[in-house]
Specification:
Elements (H helix, E strand, L loop, with lengths): L3 H16 L4 H20 L16 H5 L3 H16 L3 H6 L10 H12 L10 H17 L10 H11 L7 E3 L6 H11 L8 H9 L2 E3 L4 H13 L3
Parallel strand pairs: 1-2
Helix pairs in contact: 1-7, 2-6, 2-7, 2-11, 4-6, 8-9
């Protein structure tokens, strides 16, 4: 699905925040936190009904019902609480901090995120938006983003050519937002390609994917993608 309209929407809000002293990187970081929480909320509801492990009271619903200073205080507490969780969730929110100190603008950002059904946009919508905003920022600053990502269509074509097999590991030494991992996972779980048995499903979840990423924000997005897809 085309994410260009969403990218334009979130970029325009980025410009508003930048006028208030919120840096581009800070905005992008907060945006990924909020989209992650919104997608986790969507996955927890029908037809998915997944238990994603977000503690009750520190989930998306807890943000949408608050306003003003109370919202800002709760958001700070939420980020700290999620960073204390064990496993991948704790890694995602390690050292997470709120950089949008104006409660009104924080609410506007939450409201903007809440108005979109993110799960319906595709497997790696956060990656698409993240990379799209990096590209926009590079054009805006004329300095270059310093990061280059493989287009999703090319990723899918490569995976279809390579045809990964169940029971084999997949390594990406510069994994970015995890685009190759998601495409490989989709290929392996497609019933037209394979009918995985119990052991193969367990291997896919726990032992298939290995990656490295030195950019903290990009690594965080990769972990978010893996977490939301049960990998």
């Amino acid at each position: 699905m085309n994410t260009a309209p969403i990218i334009s929407k979130v970029w325009s809000f980025c410009t508003t925040l930048r006028d208030d002293g919120v840096g581009y990187g800070d905005y992008l970081e907060q945006l990924t936190y909020l989209i992650f929480l919104k997608m986790a909320d969507e996955y927890a509801k029908p037809p998915y009904n997944r238990h994603v492990g977000i503690p009750e009271g520190y989930d998306w619903a807890s943000l949408t019902r608050l306003r003003g200073a109370e919202l800002e205080v709760h958001y700070v507490t939420l980020l700290r609480k999620l960073g204390e969780q064990k496993g991948m969730l704790g890694q995602i929110f390690t050292k997470a901090q709120n950089k949008i100190t104006d409660p009104a603008k924080l609410y506007r950002l939450i409201d903007m995120v809440d108005g979109t059904k993110w799960v319906m946009l595709g497997a790696d919508v956060k990656g698409d938006i993240y990379e799209g905003l990096l590209e926009r920022n590079a054009e805006d600053t004329k300095s270059g983003a310093g990061q280059y990502f493989t287009p999703r269509a090319l990723i899918r074509a490569i995976v279809e050519c390579v045809r990964p097999e169940p029971g084999k590991t997949i390594a990406d030494p510069a994994c970015g937002t995890g685009g190759f991992f998601l495409a490989a996972h989709d290929f392996l779980t497609n019933s037209e390609n394979y009918a995985l048995d119990k052991d193969q499903k367990s291997f896919l979840k726990h032992s298939t994917f290995f990656g490295n990423e030195i950019v903290a924000g990009t690594r965080r997005l990769c972990l978010m993608n893996m977490f939301l897809h049960g990998i």
